[in-house]
Every structure is written in structure tokens, then in C-alpha cells.
Amino acid sequence: MKTQTRTMLLACIIALAAALLYAHTAQFEFTWDDLMLLRAAGDDPAQWADAFRYPVDRLYRPLRTLMFMAENAARAPQPAALFHSVNIALYAAACAAFFWFCARLLRNAWWAAAAALMFAAHPAHAEVVASVGNGRADLLAALFTFSSLALAAGPRTHARRAASLALFIPALLAKESTAVLPGIVFLLAFIEARSMESEFPKNVWGRAFKDALIFAAPVAAYAVVRFTMLDLGSQIQSWHGGSFGSTVLTTLSIVPDYARQLFIPVQQCPVYQVAPLHGLTARAALGAALLIGAAAAGLACLKQRPIISLCIFWILFMWLPVSNIAPIAALRADRFMFLPSAGAAIGVAAALRAGANALGVRFPKAAAPAAAGVLALLLIWYAGSARQASLPWSDSETLWSRSVTCAPDSPFAWNNYGNVLLHTRRPHQAQEAFQKSIACNPGFPHPYLGLAEVYGRQGRYSEALSALLKGKQLDPDNPAFDCRLATVNSLLHRPEQARAWYNSCIRLSRKGNGADGSGR
Fold first, then answer.
1. Per-residue confidence (pLDDT) for residue 470, from 0 to 100
2. DSSP 424
3. In this predicted structure, what is the pLDDT of residue 515?
């Protein structure tokens, strides 16, 4: 079989395997903020320019919005099935593109297939594929990132470099974390130099900086557009724990969990409640040691083992945008390991190849039975864990009931579980959930809205009024409190107060400072 034919066949097999692994998610419902994002995107593709001018949330991801527009316009009889099916197709394409990149990088289709299959079956990807809102941007970013790098890792021609750069632009427009790609391109120059010449060339540093600089230009342009459309601090949250030092310590304490998750399937949770640290702990020290050790190992391998260096820095670079050094809303999430896991998959395949070469074992012929058996066991373990991790995303009740079980101290999880119980006409259980949310964090405003709704349905308007006033104190710019305060005051036959709250509701809504109570 010709090399090109074999490569194409393996790419198709990997794409099919990835699609089959998550085929069951096509039956899932919308969860989390899916419906909010889809409604905000609209259903008129003729208004495509709005995707670039009006972000649907506090993130600038116009490519995701454009896809949502097109899918909304399709008006499928079962919209959730359409959106989830698109996620599956994008994941299959991204895994095939990753194989294409690995084949260029490792120069062996079999080892590339091993890396791609490990990536496709990685359990940390379950949320990305199973959740429309949480995963679509990552899937698009991965597809264009891997395709761009596959061209960048090939022969150095102007046409290939131009095509690679062109594919990088939609990756940026899909998700901002791909802005670290120039660092990966920088390292590819060392791999190319090592493979093409017997001695390490002195001019490789200049070549690497030149390649990285070319890819840095779109990043700079994107940053200008993004900050213009949003504003510099629109995505950055306040310091976790109230200070930069506490944020860093808290971030470092999560590193050991992420390091384990990169290689070993772990029990996953839709929501992680991470307590901010105010002093150095053993876990934070271990996290710092892992980061420093990884960076040192990456530098040490740069000349003699550039592929290993690439894998290490891939993980570090791709983790950096979600590391919370510049604080974002979530301290930890499984989807944050989606792109970093690609470096882990390449690293495992490269290490196995190096071991086989050191032992003088030819692959695939001599080592085929043993290697295939080990790989099959690993993939079965990974795939079983991935399927299990995807199941909580099947519907809202399953998602939030799972969340309050694995994150019982999360006010966000209890509030959303309460909303599900309220909408399914279980007011007494909903009331308990909202009260548990308040007990976890009395300063979290959203459960007061749900609690007031429970009281209102039971005719307990005075208690509803009290709950709303407490929530209003905590979140004065949220018009939802004002609107409901107007309704409750009307039911209590207080027309002047009802009118005042109604006018306040209209004024705040026009300012556009409202929140939907989801806690996202």
C-alpha cells in the first residue's frame, strides 16, 4: 500500500472511531448556557457581520457565533440533535487533522495513528464534545490549529506557509487561547533543523524567531480587534482570594490534578469548587515544582530531543490561557485540558517510539502484536472513561444532580439544580436547593431569585419580597430583581412601590447590565 493511501485510510479510521465514541451524545438535550448562547446568536446568516461586532457573551468568538447562526437558520425539527451532531462531526475532523499533524511531525503514520487514537479517546474531551455551548469553540479551534500546524510542519514552501497562516486566523476567531500558537511554530523550526541536518545549525534560532514572528502578526491584530469589541477587562475577573499572590497559589494547587488528568482517566465533575489559598501549601509547592521541572526538561531537550521539548511546551503553552494568572471565571474545568492533552498524546507516542528504537524493535512488524495489545487496552480504558464522563451532560437534571454530588460546596451548582427542580414542578426540593446554595455562599445573589419564585408560587409574597431585597443588595445592577420586585409589590397591593421598581427595571435593562441568573 502506498504511503499516501495508507495515511488517508488511517485518517478516515481515526475520524470514524472518534465519531463512534461520542455518537450517543447526538441524543443529548441542551444544557448549561446552550440556549442562551443560541438565542443570542440569532438565526439570520445575512447578519453575519454582527458576529464580529456584537459578542454574544463576554468572549470574542465570532466563528462559533457564525456556526450557531447557520444551525439556527436550518430550523431542524430536533435542534439539539443537529447541534450535537455538528459537535461530533467537528470532533472527528479535529482528530483526523491531529493525525495529519502527527504524521508530519513523527514521520511515521503508525506512531501518528497511535497518538491520534489516544487523543481521540482521551476522557478529558467529554465535556467539549457533549456540551454545545462549552465545547463548540474548542472544537473549531482544534480543527484549524491542527490543520495549520500540519502545513507548518511540512516542507518549507511559501504556499504552505501562507496556507498555514490562513488557517491560523479562523483558529483565533474560534477561541482566544490559540494565540499561543506562535510558540509552537517556534519549536517546529528546531524539529525541522534536527531532522534535516546531522549537526544542529547555528542559524536555527533566527529561523525560529522569523517563523514565530510571522504567526505573531495575526495575534497582534486579533488582540486589537478583541479589545476594541469588548474592553480590556471584560473577561478578566477579580483576583481569586482577593490578591495576585492568592490567585497564583490557588492556580499552582490545581496543577497536580491537571498533570494527572493528562495521562490517567480521573473522576470528572461538571463543576469544580476550588477554595482560594492564602498561604503556601504542599500541593501548591508540588504544582510549582512540576511547572519548573517541566520547563527545565523542555529546555534541556530542545536541541537533542526537540519533539519531546515540543510536547512539554505544548502542554505549558496551551494551559497558560486558562491558568488563571489573568483570572477568569472558572478556576478549574475538564475542558481546559482539551488542547493541552494533544501534547500529552504526542509525548506518549514519541516516548514509545524512542524506546522501541533504543531496543532495536521495528514498528509495526516486529512489535505489532505486543504494541497493538497494549494500545488496545489503553484505548479501551480511555474510551470507557470518556463515555462515562459524557453521560452527565445528557440533560439539565442529570448534569446538575451530578454537580451537587461531586461539588457539594458549590453555590452555583445548587442554584442551577434548584432552577431545574423549580421548572419540573418540585417546589419543596427546589427551595432546599436554593437554601443550600445560600448556605454555601450567602453573598451569591442568584438563588434569592429562585427562592422568591418558590415563595411566590406558594402565595408567600412577604417572604418573596424579603428574599428579593436581599438579592438586590448583593447584585444592584441586575434588572431581574427590580422586575420581580415590581411584580411582588403589585401582588401586595403596593402600587407606588411597584411602579418605582418597574421603572428601575426598564432603566437597568436599557443599560444592558442585566444578568440571567445562570452564574456562568
1. 96
2. T
3. 39
Please report where in the chains the cell 470532533 appears, as a residue: 91
The predicted-structure confidence for 474-512, as pLDDT tens digits, reads as follows 999 999 999 999 999 999 999 999 999 999 999 998 876
Q: Please report the pLDDT score of residue 351 as a whole number.
A: 82
Taking 50 as the pLDDT cut, the residues of the chain under it are 513-520
The CA distances from residue 379 to 112, 260, 265, 396, in Å, are: 15, 17, 11, 29
Distant-in-sequence, close-in-space partners of 296: CB < 8 Å, separation ≥ 6: none
28 CB-near residues (< 8 Å, 6+ apart) = 80, 84, 130, 393, 394, 395
What's the pLDDT at 354? Answer: 74
Q: Is 492 helix (H, G, I), strand (E, B) or coil?
A: coil
Q: 10 Å Cβ neighbour count for 494? A: 15
265 touches 341 (CB < 8 A): no
Residue 94: closest CA among 132, 128, 124 = 128
Q: Are 474 and 496 in contact (CB under 8 A)?
A: no
Grid coordinates of 398: 442529570
Residue for grid cell 491531529: 98
Distances in whole angstroms, Cα of residue 85 to Cα of each of 95, 291, 479: 15, 37, 36
Return d(Cα 296, Cα 140) in angstroms, integer: 32
Distance (Å, whole) CA 399 – CA 384: 19
pLDDT at residue 15 in the model:
97
Within 8 A by CB and 6+ apart from 309, the residues are 187, 190, 298, 299, 301, 302
Question: Residue 264 to residues 286, 363, 378, 379, 398: CA-CA distances in angstroms?
Answer: 18, 25, 10, 12, 25
SS (H, E, C) 209-266: HHHHHHHHHHHHHHHHHHHHHCCCCCCCCCCHHHCHHHHHHHHHHHHHHHHHHHHCCC
Cell digits of residue 297 = 526538561
Distance CA 18, CA 254 (A): 29
Q: Which residues contact residue 371 at a Cβ distance below 8 angstroms, ignoring those fewer than 6 apart?
A: 114, 352, 356, 363, 364
pLDDT of residue 518: 40
